[in-house]
Amino acid sequence: MSGEGRVCMVVPTYDEVENLPWVVRRLRGAHPDVHVLVVDDGSPDGTGQVADELAAADPGVRVVHRTSKEGLGAAYLHGFRVALDAGYDVIGEMDADGSHQPEQLHRLLDALPYADLVIGSRWVPGGSVVNWPLHRQVLSRGGNTYVRLLLGVDVRDATAGFRLYRRQTLEKIDLETVRSTGYVFQTDLAVRVLRHGMVVREVPIEFVERVRGESKMDRAVATESLRRITAWGLRERREQVLRLVRSRRGHR
Description:
This protein is α/β, with parallel strands linked by helices.
């Protein structure tokens, strides 16, 4: 248990049979007080069964089985609701492929007393990526710059998925209204936290490209994210203009 209360890390899985035991054991070894909630989207490779075996051997591990693959955001939302219902005070998220190093979770926990959402960031000073080709770095940096400029948010890595939320933060942003299902989900929630006047803090992490299995990120996923972000940005700018027009009319 951390100084902020009971902590649960939500780990969504789809075909991560090779990586999941490795990541869960590292997390439980580095932070024995932090619990793990695996949300498996009906993996055909047997990940769900492996997750059940991990839970049977460790009371700090729990598994939720979903029958279909509905997207990263949907899996996280399901896991968040389960963790909230279980009474956890801090609810985090991390990938099952080893790209988010469990040994660095303490950096996020140390920053939590000063924030409502803590993001493990690749693109703040001290952050880095390992084994990423140049085009992946350009895509990620460029996408995050686009988010910052279009949505007007001061977050360097809004697309990052290594995070800690206070339970009050998730309750305030109203998870029932979240419709994002893909990787854009991360940006969506970061923006919601900021729009509610809460504090987002980024801490540097070393992000390591997966060494086993296949990445779920492809061109279609990236395109969907950019399309959704563009729509949000244009809507936000339109609302800003309307507010400005109404304000000026009110001062006549």
